[in-house]
Amino acid sequence: RGVDVLDPAAIARLPACEALVHLAAHPSLDNADERTVLAENAATAANVLLWAEAAGVRRVVYASSQSALGL
After folding, report:
1. pLDDT of 29 higher than 80
2. C-alpha dihedral over 46, 52, 53, 58, to 10 degrees?
């Protein structure tokens, strides 16, 4: 199910879980400002990881790529 990971309130409504896989990010810079891509990718990672900690998630799998940095 899709959740807007830029919205901490939407993330807070996720059901409890033991493990979380986070792969959400802008996949490229096509039609996007480099600073916006970097800021949003950092914000989504922070939002998800903060929620996971608060929710007591025991395992997090996080994957990224150089495009998440705007490279």
Report:
1. no
2. -130
Other Cβ atoms within 10 Å of 42 Cβ, number? 13
How many beta carbons lie within 10 A of that of residue 12, not counting itself?
13
The CA distance from 36 to 21, in Å, is 23
Amino acid found at 57: V
The dihedrals phi and psi of 67, each to the nearest 5 degrees, come to -70, -25
pTM for this structure? 0.76
Integer Cα distance of 44 and 9 in angstroms:
12
SS (H, E, C) 5-18: CCCHHHHHCCCCCC
